[in-house]
Amino acid sequence: MNYYEDLKKLNSLSREDYFKVYDLLNSAVFYESYIPNVGDFALAAEQNTEALDRIRQITEFTNNTDDILTSANRRAVDYKEEESNKFMKSVIAANVTDITESGYFYKQLASSCDDMHIDTTVEDCGAIGKEIDLPIDENTYNFHVRNHYISELSNYSTNYDEFRQKTAKLSSIHVRTFLYCNRGHRTFCKRCAGIYQRSHNTTFIPKSIGIYSTLMITEHATQASLDSMNNGTSEKLNVALAQPIAAKDVQTTEDTRRTFNKIIDTIGNIGVESRFYEIALLSRLHEIDDKIVPSALVTSFLKSDDAFGKFIYRPSHKTLKQLVTIKDISHLSTKSKIALDIYEEENSDES
To answer: Of the candidates 224, 236, 237, which has an alpha carbon nearest to the alpha carbon of residue 64?
Structure first.
């Protein structure tokens, strides 16, 4: 049975059907998705390229590639006192302030980004993309280019060495991203969205890109803090992505791009692709009376037309009054759709 094909036929899932599909996927995951095993780690210790790539599919998400590869290459039997102390401090850090900060940051970001989507019916909006001067190092490639569509190559790029070979004679490239998409304000075309890997050879399209971006940002932020003994990464990201945005700085498309690129550059690469920060920042802009109006991250969703979603995210006398007095309720958010059991299965486009 091909479980992915079965999923594609489902336009919506009730809670009961969701658990049925979950059970099917649970029994098939080890067959449909390759998960690194002990043999891969043994080969990785011998610098086997294919094994290293398989391991990186997991460790790049958890942001601990170096630690895993160091462990795979260990030759000593006993751990040094410094290594033991580092491990104990990371465990202690898991129970203190950064987890709390990360949870609060996640709630803010999730509410702000909730109604941002990829329109899978629009393959290409015709945008040119962001111009990037060449050559670039691997860190810059991973932050700004990897998994994106490059106009000059008429294709997506996933490997730095191949990228260098194909662009060796170019002085610059144009990279398609959310910030440069012409599709709309809170909805984006597939090409500007780029590709997303479910495993080392399977890609998919996260239609609810706002929720997906929230998970990618906050998961890496929490992991980075734990790996560095509670360095406050979540708080730093919160400050960067929630900083005040003046209306004059987002009056035109070029103003917005310049403002947001500056913020993204100050964050830098901590294992999160820059396109997810673009979603976080764009989520704070709302079109009101034909004007783009910036809002605070924590109150961004209150400018949505989804009255029920606003009440769920920010329950108050004001949002309750809006909910009970409104005539037509628009269920635009993932939160309200799940609450009312009308959520459509989002991530079914596989390749």
So the answer is: 224
Does residue 49 sit in helix, strand or coil? helix
Element (H or E) spanning 3, and its range?
helix 3-8
Could you tell me if 114 and 301 are in contact, meaning their C-beta atoms sit under 8 angstroms apart?
yes
**Per-residue pLDDT for 345 more than 70?**
no
Ramachandran angles phi, psi of 196, nearest 5° = -135, 130
pTM value > 0.90: no
What tens digit of pLDDT does each residue of 268-322 get?
988 899 999 999 999 999 988 888 899 999 888 888 888 888 888 888 888 888 8
Residues paired with residue 172 on neighbouring β-strands, in sequence order:
133
DSSP 303: G
Q: Closest Cα to residue 138, out of 65, 202, 215?
A: 65
Evaluate if residue 213 carries a pLDDT over 50: yes
Instruction: Please report which residue ranges of 94-187 form alpha helices under DSSP H.
Output: 97-113, 138-140, 160-166
Residue with tokens 């780029």: 194
Identify the three-state secondary structure at position 204: strand
